Structure formats: C-alpha cells, structure tokens
Amino acid sequence: MDATAQLQASLDAIRARIAAACRAAGRDPSGVRLLPVSKTVDAARLRLAYDLGIREFGENKVQEALAKSEAMADLPDLRWVLIGHLQTNKAKHAARFAGEFQALDSLRVAQALDTQLQKHGRALDVLVQVNTSGEASKFGLAPGEVPAFVRELPAFSALRVRGLMTLALFSEDESRVRPCFVRLRELRDRLRQEAPDGIAMDELSMGMSGDFELAIAEGATTVRVGTAIFGTRSTPDSAYWPDATGHQ
Ligand SMILES: *Cc1c(COP(=O)(O)O)cnc(C)c1O
C-alpha cells in the first residue's frame, strides 16, 4: 500500500470504530467529531490527509503548529486546533492562526489571547481543560474550580467558549479511566444549567487512540486521535505532558 492508501485505511478503520461505539451507545455518529492529531507528522503527510478530505488538525505545541500552518498556507479551509498547554508568551502566535484552542486553564492565558485576537480582528473557539484524573502531572483546572472560572469568561469577547476538554488517566483499567469521562460530562451538564449568557457548554472533547470508544460511551462530542491514524510517534509523550511514562 502506498502512503495515501494506508492513511485512507486508517481513517476508515477509526471511523468504523467510532460508528460502532456510537451504535453501542445509542448515539448518532454525526454527533462525534474525529479530530486527527498530527503532532510530529510532517506537512507532506498532512497534505495527503488533506487530499483525503481532512480539514482540521490537532497540534499540541504552538511552534510546531505555526510552522505547519505556514507550510500549508496554500490549502484553503484548513483549521488548526491547539490541544496543548499554552504559555502566556505564546498567545500572540496562537492568536494569528489557530481556529480553536482546547486547553484553556487560566485567566492570564484568556486575557493574553483575547488581547491578541482583538488586535487581529479574530475570534477563537475555546474549550476549558479540566484535570479529571487528579494527577499532579496533568494540566487543567480541578473540576471544582471550573464553575467560577467559566463565570469570568464573558469578559473576553474574542473567545467563543464551546465546552470542556480532558485527558483521562492513562491506564489499561477501564474502571479507572471511565470515571474521568463521567466527571467531565457531569460537570458539563451542571455548567449548562448555570453558565452565563454567551457561554456554550455543548462540546466534550475527550478520548484518544487508547480510550476513545469509552469516551464516546460517556458522551464525547470530539475525540482526538493521533497514533491510531498516523502511526506511532518517535517523540515520547513526556514531551507533551510531564510524567507520561505509563502511556504506551
Ligand atoms: C497527542 C495528543 C492526543 C492524541 O494522542 P494519541 O494517543 O496519539 O491518539 C490527544 N490529546 C492531546 C492533548 C494530545 O497531546
């Protein structure tokens, strides 16, 4: 198989698994967005994915995403989704090209993004990252901090808040992973009741290559899938989140 056929086969396989997980959960597959996560994958391969109809890529690091967005600037309708922790001083880069940011976890970053976005006359879809596993190594707000945090967000008019994102515990043990997804869904449901005007709480971005079926069973609206589409990465996951030694 050539590289394009291989990519097509991986995408078909993941879409079939998403559809099966939706059927098992009594959900409509159109309610689950597959976000291909392209970190470490070079622009040449991403062009193949584009030719197969992919129009969004998830990237963990701003610099890498920015470089690829520039290398692929000739492709229309391409949307870059930042899914990794953002430092305040990188907000100015993110504000230039990102269409969505899924890892908002501080008012300082919200402020920095809003200021830069206003400057460029842009808006950004945003998800609030929640640490549902209780691990110190994970980014994101503790669930208890989220309601007060969300109440502050209408002040940032360039941020279009859409919902919540989490990384579950990395474990083979379903009974430890599932509660992370349940926690995020319950928090989202609660925030739907009390969120201020202009703050939407529809999106639940949860589930990765190793656990997306479980996440769909618990209500995921976006699954972020990297290795199951593009293959194993040469960079260890500890480059993306501290202390990821238990993963893969
Ligand atoms: C890399 C990454 C993913 C995808 O991980 P895979 O295990 O390769 O599917 C999902 N979410 C975030 C935040 C990531 O950095």
Textual characterization of the structure:
With 248 residues, the protein is an alpha/beta fold. The protein has one domain: Alanine racemase (TIM Barrel, Alpha-Beta Barrel), CATH 3.20.20.10. 41% of the residues lie in helices and 15% in strands. The protein contains 9 helices and 8 strands. It has helices at residues 3-25, 43-51, 62-71, 91-97, 107-120, 146-152, 174-194, 212-217, 227-230, and strands spanning 33-36, 56-59, 79-82, 100-104, 124-129, 159-165, 203-205, 222-225. A 6-stranded parallel beta sheet has the order 2-3-4-5-6-7. Strands 1-8 form a two-stranded parallel ribbon. The model has no long low-confidence stretch (mean pLDDT 95). The chain binds pyridoxal-5'-phosphate (PLP). Pyridoxal-5'-phosphate binds next to strand 8 and helix 9.
Strand content: 5-15%
Question: In angstroms, what is the radius of gyration?
Answer: 17 Å
Q: State the share of residues found in helices, binned by percent.
A: 40-55%
Give the number of domains. Answer: 1
Modified residues (N6-(pyridoxal phosphate)lysine): 39
Organism: Luteimonas viscosa
Family: Belongs to the pyridoxal phosphate-binding protein YggS/PROSC family.
GO molecular function: pyridoxal phosphate binding
